[in-house]
Amino acid sequence: MERINDILVPFDFSPPSEQALAYALDFVGSRPGKKITLCFMQEKEDLKALEKQFADIRAGLSKAFRSELDWVHFSPPSVPGLIDKSRELHTDLILMGTSGSQDPEGTTHTSQTVLSTDCPVLVIPQGVPEEFRLKKIALVLGSNEIDDPKDLGTLLNFARTFNAQVHVLTIQTTPGVYGYSREEEKNERLLEYYLEDFYAQHTFIESDDMVEGIFDYAQEKEMDLIAILPRNHVRNGKPSEGRLTRILTLQSRIPLLAIEH
Questions:
Q1: How far, rounded to the nearest angstrom, does the alpha carbon of residue 50 sit from its chain's CA centroid?
Q2: What residues contact residue 88 under an 8 Å CB cut-off, 6+ apart?
Q3: Torsions phi, psi of 205, nearest 5?
Q4: Taking the CB of residue 254, how many other CB atoms lie within 10 A of it?
Q5: Are residues 83 and 51 in contact, defined by beta-carbon separation less than 8 angstroms?
């Protein structure tokens, strides 16, 4: 995806959704040509109340905000309803908040959305710093060949927009020599081609716990965003069950970008 102009923010007036909206406003900044659409989701809709609440949100915008802000609604709230709405609006990015869960076998509406949609999703965990920063991105990459190299175009869009460096991380759970297989060498060429000068380095780490290894690296290197290429929708090879994607969505304490296709 070469552009990210239309952003859909699910909004149910909860603290996570309010934090997601704040992040979205910082994300588009003062750049014209962007559009944020709030997707109001309530069990019982009151359109007059929603109109007033949207007006209050608009009234609180900074004068520097030059993008478009709009709203849609549907009821009752559901993951399929949200995905249908994103397709109807030709959304480039779903940006949604989450309170997360420390239960590795748990699930949330956010994790369900990430695993179900074919649209990129930017997950904003509750409690991220209020000061917006996006300068260092950790792309988690396995040893499998990248399924659709064009997915890296979405990451390049992020890197170009914020002049961010992309640090690629591969976690290995068994000892060995890595980075020299046919798939890994092809991935390296794709990273260099698609990410251009924003590609910083590729780090290989051995860890018994993949999730812990990812979070430890992100914390140690002070990453602002973790990016993943979920394999539950791959066109080439066998799709995964999405367990790693689900756990990262549940437990990440920094923003997580799931680049779906």
A1: 27
A2: none
A3: -130, 135
A4: 19
A5: no
> Residues for the chain: how many in total?
261
Does an H or E element contain 222, and which?
none
The CA distance from 9 to 82, in Å, is: 10
Nearest by Cα to 244 from 219, 218, 212, 220? 212
pLDDT tens, residue by residue, 26-83: 999 888 899 999 999 988 878 999 999 999 999 999 888 889 999 999 999 999 999 9
| pTM, two decimal places | 0.93
Domains in the chain: ranges and CATH? 6-125 (3.40.50.620), 136-258 (3.40.50.620)
Tell me the three-class secondary structure of 54-72, residue by residue. HHHHHHCCCCCCCCEEEEE
Contact criterion met (CB below 8 Å) for 227 and 259: yes
Number of neighbours of residue 97 by Cβ within 10 angstroms: 26
- Smallest CA-to-CA distance from 121 within 139, 94, 84 is with 94
- For 159, the enclosing helix (H) or strand (E) is helix 151-162
Q: Rounded distance, CA 228 to CA 240, Å?
A: 14
